[in-house]
Specification:
The complex is a heterodimer.
Chain A: H1 2-13, H2 16-36, H3 40-58, H4 66-88, H5 90-117
Helix pairs in contact in A: 2-5, 3-4, 4-5
Chain B: H1 5-14, H2 33-57, H3 71-81, H4 88-93, H5 109-124, H6 127-130, H7 144-155, H8 165-217, H9 220-225, H10 229-238, H11 243-253, H12 260-265, H13 269-276, H14 280-284
Classes of the chains: A mainly alpha, B mainly alpha.
Chain lengths: 130, 285
Amino acid sequence: MVGMFTGVYAQDQQPDDAKGKQKIEALYVAYITKTLNLNEDEAQKFWPVHAQFDSELKSVKLELPELDRQQQQLNIKKKYQDRFSKILGNDRTNDFFRKDGEFRKKLVEQLRNKRQQNNPNQRPFKRRNF
Amino acid sequence: MQKDLHILNELTELGSPLAEWPALNVFTVPDGYFDQLPESILSGIENQLNTLSFSKQAPVSDVPEGYFDGLADSILNRIKNVPASGSILTDSLRQASVFNVPVHYFDDLATNILQRIHADEETELPVTLQSVQHINVFTVPTGYFESLPEAIQQQVPAPAKVIGINTQRSFFKYAMAAAFTGLLGLSLFTTFNKKDDKIDTAQSELVMADANLILKNNNFDQELESLGDNDIVQYLQSNGEDVKAALVASVTDEKNLPSEEEYYLDDQTLDNFLNQLNIPQTINN
């Protein structure tokens, strides 16, 4: 009951930015759950560990030099590899890291498409044929 | 006679053998002793006083009249008439000098002393030091003695600070206050942290509910397309993504670059293309 109240309270108090973030996070969970085919038991074990993993990744300072930042992120991913493997197995853990990157790519694509669509004054380019 | 129970208990606690002694009074006095004691003491004092008053009435010795008037002169005359005995006291009283020195002893005394000092110096000094015996080998830096008192004062250890009992109490008072404030702060921090945790948990629950809904409705692509530009940028940045670099990489990866023909038509094609993505800064860099 208290949790529900807090949840409703949290939702009501959310600014638009927070709602957008919540929506993208929901899309991420849905994407990973579907592509890795997580069952209920796996999901219950996987997402709490993922929350810690995500928190540590976000704690890496963005002001760091690019390679240092990437190195720290890689260290965190390696640190959690074993923990994820105990839940998903090695192959699906590798798949998870791949899908994690793919989801971001999807977001970037979406951003690119949106920006291109939002420039009606420019004619569409003929795409390069590689 | 009864033993005092408090004292007996204490003695038992201490393991003293006195605790096991029987309660017997070993000191006895005749019957009615204390009744007659004041009278017997008073009678003893009276007897002593009577004796003293008797001795006052009868002087111990008599002296002739005017005996003490010429006593000092007669003693001095007697001493002067006593032959030399070797006693310093009697000789000095007869004004006779008991110390004799050779004639003109003091005339040469100073010279003799100096000669002996020089002689001692010459004989006792090692050969290596004789050459420097008249040289002052002790030197001090200029102004040494002017700064000496200050230097000594600096080396004197500062007196130990005496902390009174009241001061210590005051310290404890402040320590207790600090500890209390710390506990209060910690509890408030924990409370707010718990509150944050609750909100985080609630947030996670909302995310999971939304995710379930997306899976149930199978509308991932529609939800993705409905995302706002700013929401995507903020999400990517919060996950440590360089959005501009990612956009350029996306263009090249997806073979979305304009075809060669476009460059023939307009030499600003690439600029225009990047402008579409809102990343003109990338061109300049």
